[in-house]
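Bug report

Summary: structure tokens for DUF6868 domain-containing protein differ between web form and batch submission.
Environment: batch mode, default settings.
Steps: 1) Submit the sequence below via batch. 2) Compare with the web form result.

Sequence submitted:
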Amino acid sequence: MMVSELKAFLIWSSIINYGVLFLWFGVFVFAHDWVYRMHTRWFKLSVESFDALNYGGVTVYKIGVVLFNLVPLIALSIIF
């Protein structure tokens, strides 16, 4: 795989992953009550713990995107 192909892959991967992140955030903000009711059918969760779990999930996902997509892209851009 050529460096230009790898850069293009990392750029598109970052765009798709940030799209998923924005979708998750949008659903969490605009459909919070519906998602909470759906999850409390399966798990006993308070609203505070549900919010904390979602916030933690978004944080871990965002760190993963930065670590596995953006950092290698920046490194390749600096080197080549």
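Above is the batch result. After comparison, the two runs are identical; trailing whitespace caused the diff. The two ends are 14 Å apart (CA to CA). Residues 3-79 form one domain.
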